[in-house]
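Problem: given the chain below (100 residues), write out its structure.
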Amino acid sequence: MDEERDLVVFEDDAGNELTMEVLDYLAYEGKEYALLTEYVEDKDDKRDENEPIEVFIMEVVPVGEDQEEFVPVDDALAEKLIKIFESNEFDDEPLEDEEK
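Solution.
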């Protein structure tokens, strides 16, 4: 049975849709970030396991009560966060509301 994937659809300025898969989340300095890659729906279109995948880091910003917006981060922060993701030295616990 296939595992459920966390997919996010983005739309560019020309109205083209791009589906991204969230690989993981990270809480860092009081904010939440997501590690994403382009989603490939066709299972027959598998990539070589040794081929690196292109990843993107975005900040996850709450919008309203139950929606989120994904906002790109600058290159310096993205590099730092990718190193943290690669090291696996981060807390998997989700962020809690700080308004307590």
